[in-house]
Each structure stands twice: as structure tokens, then as C-alpha cells.
Amino acid sequence: MTYAGVPGVIETRESYEETTLVVDPARLVEACLVLRDEHGFNFMSDITPTDYLGWGEVGVAGYIGTAAGRDLNAPGSQGLARLPEPKSKRFSVSYHLLRVSDEPARVRVQVWLDDGEPVATVLPVWPAADWFEREAWDMMGIPFEGHPNLVRILMDDDWEGHPHRKDYPLGGEPVRFSDEE
Questions:
Q1: Secondary structure of the chain in the HEC alphabet?
Q2: Alpha-carbon gap, residue 76 to 119, rounded angstroms
Q3: Which has the higher per-residue pLDDT, 77 or 166?
Q4: Rounded distance, CA 94 to CA 25, Å?
Q5: 76 or 98, higher pLDDT
Q6: What CATH code is carried by the domain that includes residue 102?
Q7: 16 pLDDT band (50/70/90 cuts)?
Q8: Which domain holds residue 95?
Q9: Is residue 76 part of a domain?
Q10: What residues contact 88, with CB distance under 8 A and at least 6 apart?
Q11: What is the Cα–Cα distance from 63 to 115, expressed in whole angstroms?
Q12: For residue range 105-133, what is the model confidence (pLDDT) as tens digits?
């Protein structure tokens, strides 16, 4: 399927039977409106932020499956070790859209952001974005400009930091929900 006329598209990728439209963050809402109104994507199923801090610094080997299975205790690259492709910025935010009709389709709209760089809320386009954007703010620190209630949704209001970021400190947090005072 072609997505001619979608504004702000920087790149189109096809992978795993899904189309990804990389969009300029400044034109995200405009692109989403065109996808909803002109291409029929009437359902936003998810918003997924990803932190790529340190991406591309270490090679990837992984586990190779064979007809006999795979041994998770014996990693090996089978000659396939490679460095992942570099990413343009630290964070990506992916919007997973579905067209629920006689001709169903799916598309992923993706924007790339640096730390602290805001992106406009898509709440006026898809009201279901409310909690997804709040979760992305709470867990990853992605600011959504224009969101009417961008407050924590999973962590306590006084929680410091964003626990799904790769630079979030591991361990050392006291247990806050015990019977002891």
C-alpha cells in the first residue's frame, strides 16, 4: 500500500509484513489526521516508546535456532555477529494504527526524539492516546506537548526519574510497601 499525501514522512520501511512511516515530529499530528481521515486508520492500538541509549556500541551475537532446537546456555553467532544500524536519536515513539474495515491494514508511525525533546499529543486525533502518552511520560520521560493531564499513571506522584530508561539506576530502592514503619 502506498501512503502518498501523508505529510512529514521522512522514510518508509517495510519489515515483517508491516509498514513503518518515519515522520518529522513537528508534523506528527498532521500525518496522523491524514492517515485517519484519508487512509481509514480508525484505531490506534498502542504507543510504544523505546530507549536506544548505547545502541550500536556492542556487537550482537544472539542464539541461533536449528532443527535440533537451541541451547540457551551456549550462545553463538554462527558467523552472524554484526553491529546494529545506528539510530538517528536516542528515543523512538511508535504509534501502531489499524484500519478496521473490509480491507484491514496496519501501519506504524514512528518519530525520533532526543532526551527532553517534546512531541505533540495525538489526543485530538485518537482519544485513546490519553493513557498511552501518560505511560510513556511516566516510564520513559517523553514529554507530550498539549496533553491536558500529563501526570504519572503507574508510579507514585513523588517518584524520581523514569524507570524504563536505560540510564535509570538499578537496585538500591527501599521497599516502600511493607508492614514495618
A1: CCCCCCCCEEEEEEECCEEEEEECHHHHHHHHHHHHHCCCCCEEEEEEEEECCCCCCCCECCCCCECCECCCCCCCCCCCCECCCCCCCCEEEEEEEEECCCCCEEEEEEEEECCCCCEECCCCCCCCHHHHHHHHHHHHCCCEECCCCCCCCCCCCCCCCCCCCCCCCCCCCCCCCCCCC
A2: 40
A3: 166
A4: 11
A5: 98
A6: 3.30.460.80
A7: confident
A8: 9-63+71-145
A9: yes
A10: 112
A11: 32
A12: 999 999 999 999 999 999 999 999 999 99
CA gap 152, 138 in Å, rounded: 5
Query: Per the domain annotation, does 169 fall within a domain?
Result: no
- Pair 90, 53: CB distance under 8 Å: yes
What domain count does the chain have?
1
In a domain, 55, yes or no: yes
The answer as to whether 42 is a domain residue is yes
d(CA 161, CA 167): 10
Confidence of residue 170 (pLDDT cuts 50, 70, 90): confident
From the CB of residue 180, how many other CB atoms can be counted at a distance below 10 Å? Answer: 4
Identity at 123, one-letter amino acid code: L
